[in-house]
């Protein structure tokens, strides 16, 4: 049974005092509960150790895929392969951040990798700021959390500047319009970039212009154009490849011509594909952090069916040992290739809510939070903070 601690005071006042009151909209705070998960110090350390080790394993798996040209097995479109190779081989293309979704970790249970959101992970404001403000609102020390996410993002933006000293630190941040949750995530990233010395602007992707020879730029109100040397996009790489193939080609040329650095880099798609879980299992069979993952249904084992590039639990199905569906989520990815992962039970509370740990990685493990929902954690799940006791 998961251990919860009730907190009476919501963090609104603290967020306003900190100047983060823009985070008080209807698309952020309702997902924060009045409880936090109690985590022992050794459990927080185990989450961090697991995330660090898993990232090293993923880098090895990524190199394995590249060396053997296994992109198609990961469902990666052909028009991104060159871009992946370019960014993988050039250390100036820094992976800014990602989020591990993990099972286990509490009450003596082994941490298990469920998946890694390497490209466009969200829950940044809830993890970095809101749960921290929740402790302050209740008179608790901010040291009682495994949470240095904002500081880690700022340090990584500084690393990005150092790696690309030949480029002026002008950063354009883009998302897809009409997704308020994404806007909040982008705003936190922008604050971290400003602290790291970037000149930051925002523009939805439909209002951004791209040129192989001139780079990435936007039109200004006075009719002129403003060019940017760095571009962060909260738009999945596979969406660009499949829905905007011309843009994928232009972005490859922009990268090749050194006209802009794109964040997160294209090689993060190697980690984003659920098929990397199968590669990990093949490289590290029976590793304690891994769940067996294969490309066909298990014959006699409870399992989870996942599409390679599904998001927020969409088109996930839990299957019993005979292959019958126990639980499922609908979505737009039903026709996509699938993998099958050994089932691991999520922690639950007295009301039978399920909890999935999320550990952010930005150069190093840097932040813990939980999402609470049904057996399949989807886009309606709540965010639950934590306290290290």
Highlighted features:
389 residues, alpha+beta, 2 domains, 8-stranded mixed beta sheet, 31% helix
Structure, explained:
The chain has 2 domains: 283 residues, no CATH class; 51 residues, no CATH class. Helices cover 31% and strands 25% of the residues. Strands 1, 2, 3, 4, 17, 18, 19 and 20 form an 8-stranded mixed sheet that branches. Strands 12-16-13-14-15 form a 5-stranded antiparallel sheet, with helices on one face. Helix 2 packs across helix 10, helix 3 runs parallel beside helix 8 and helix 7 packs across helix 8.
Tally of domains: 2
Give the C-alpha Rg: 21 Å
Count of runs of 4 or more consecutive helical residues: 10
Structural class by SSE content: alpha+beta
Kindly state the mean pLDDT as a whole number?
91
Short description:
It is built from ten helices and 20 strands.
Topology at a glance:
Elements: E1 4-6, H1 12-17, E2 32-39, H2 41-67, H3 81-89, E3 98-103, E4 112-117, H4 124-137, H5 149-163, E5 170-174, H6 180-195, E6 199-202, E7 209-211, E8 215-219, E9 225-228, E10 230-233, H7 237-243, H8 245-256, E11 261-263, H9 268-272, H10 275-283, E12 293-294, E13 303-307, E14 317-319, E15 325-328, E16 338-342, E17 347-348, E18 354-361, E19 365-373, E20 382-388
Parallel strand pairs: 2-20, 5-6, 5-10, 10-11
Antiparallel strand pairs: 1-2, 3-4, 3-18, 7-8, 8-9, 12-16, 13-14, 13-16, 14-15, 17-18, 18-19, 19-20
